[in-house]
Amino acid sequence: MCSFRVRYQTLEIGPLDIHLRTLRNNQEFSDPLGIAKKLGISSATWPLFGVVWPSSLVLANEILDYDTADKRILEIGCGIGLTSLLLNKRNVDISATDYHPEVESFLIENTSLNGGAPIPFERADWSDLNTDLGRFDTIIGSDLLYEDEHIEMLAKFIELHANPACEVLIVDPGRGRKQKFSKQMADFGFTHTHTKPENTDYLAAPFKGHILTFKRK
User: Fold this and answer.
1) Which end of the chain is less packed: N or C, by CB atoms within 10 Å?
2) Strand order across the 121-123 sheet
3) Which DSSP category does 46 fall into?
């Protein structure tokens, strides 16, 4: 039985209210059956999926003005799934993936809290080359470049699920790996731009990172 504590909150993203059940804070932990441990998720990193981080807020606000018409979109490393929930509320074709074993249950409950249709979800490792996700027109994510070894894995995972014509949006808080990642993406035929978000008044502190945009036509 899980013993973590949760909180309920409503976030205003542009004109939309997104209702969330999250972990109470980033100190919560519960892995009674050792499932996360077997997946290589430590007690220190276990809670990271379950809170709202500045990068996820930037991504959600950035996607408000994004042209989603007729696009199939995938959120990688969705965590609590803020942007997936926002797009789902707008009836966009959104799917989500994350490695953490608790993400799916939170996503199901949060989708219900927002009165949305079920969001297709798959628990997947970036090194997994045999997923059932398919290919997408747009791939999004936030704060994904934690470690140097993630760079090549993430780029290959994106390539595996990217249509020949594809746009990728990743919000990076400034972990110092954006140039290396951009080089990996260039090897798959993507051009890139790194931009600062125009307005982050909704954040408690200035955002030091960038929005990484990759395009392949």
Assistant:
1) N
2) 121-123, 93-98, 72-76, 136-142, 162-172, 210-216, 191-195
3) G
Q: How many CB atoms lie within 10 A of CB 88?
A: 24
pLDDT digits (tens, 9 = 90+) for 61-105: 999 999 999 999 999 999 999 999 999 999 999 999 999 999 999
Indicate the average pLDDT of the chain: 96
Each residue of 132-169: pLDDT tens digit?
999 999 999 999 998 999 999 999 999 999 999 999 99
Question: Helix, strand, or coil here: 119?
Answer: coil
Q: Tell me the two tokens of residue 186.
A: 């260039």
Q: Tell me how far apart the alpha carbons of residues 162 and 175 are, in angstroms, rounded to a whole number.
A: 24
Alpha-carbon torsion, ordered 213, 103, 161, 60, to 10 deg: -30
DSSP state of 70: T
* CB contact set of 79 (below 8 Å; sequence gap of 6+): 48, 49, 50, 53, 56, 98, 100, 103, 142
Backbone φ and ψ of 72, nearest 5° = -95, 120
What is d(CA 189, CA 182) in angstroms, rounded to the nearest whole number?
A: 11
d(CA 108, CA 136): 22
Give the residue from 28, 40, 50 showing the smallest Cα distance to 147.
40
> At 97, is the secondary structure helix, strand, or coil?
strand
